[in-house]
What we know:
By secondary structure, the chain is α/β, with parallel strands linked by helices. The chain has eleven helices and ten strands. A seven-stranded mixed beta sheet has the order 3-2-1-4-7-9-10, sandwiched between helices. The longest helix is centred in the first third of the chain and has 32 residues, at 86-117. It starts with a helix and ends with a helix.
Amino acid sequence: MQKNYRDCLEDVINDKHSGAWIVTRKAVSCLEALTLELGNGEAATLMEEIERAAREIMRAQPAMAQLVNLFNIVFITMAKEDSGEAVVLARKISGEVKRFNETARNAVRKVAALGADLISNDNGVLIHSNSSTILEIIKLAHEQGKIFHLLLSESRPIGEGRVCAEELSRLGLQATYFVDAAISKGVERADLILLGADSLSENTLINKVGTRAICLLAREALVPCYAACESSKFIPGKLGPRKEQPRNPDEVWDAPPKETTVENYYFDEVAVDSFDGIITEEGITTPVEVAGRIRDKKLNSKLLEMMK
């Protein structure tokens, strides 16, 4: 049974464990439920609720460019629609978000195929957090019969590494799990590092906190390090997420001494040239090659205003 719109919205807002692709798929389901529930009412009411949902989702998931690009398509569709009929607008929005979702799915499949080619038998492959795109790469390499060992980070403060370990266990894959402070031990044993992305601009990749440290360690240890990022996560730097504010300190330490201030962050900003390559659906590209494609992206004016 399909969830109602409000339940779908809360699911997107409160998801702290999933990668960008999974969260975006949830947002697609949210928009589909919304258009279904309000499609027989007033067009103005439907548009107001979509704008409210976009504002709440992007406030809760500020680092995920894929969500921005999804809502950009929705806002462009609303701006072009002049029939004034909610049922027509709902049908068009539903069609656009389904198309976006299918395009993203196909992109992940292509990224998975390219990423799996990087994995060889007997490799130690280090991954971080719980990127759904990286998991697709790992699944495909496993299905191809390759035998390799995974090195996982704890991924504090939420601990997505545990969620990832459970998923890998269901697939029958062997893994070694490191606390974040000991991830250098994992890098030393790695032949390849695969990292996800929540957004990619001309110069900066945003991903789970700890990504920058892993990249620096990889460079020191001369371990190849790649980021997997579909083009739906591209966003020009000037339009990208605002600087992250500290999150709930209780997730790190719920009763610290009163003299101690706990700062809790979810994301890292990493220089794109920290990676040996960016795995996109169009191939494994260099940071310089991908920058030109990102600069050409444009966003709807109303969405831009909402993001300020």
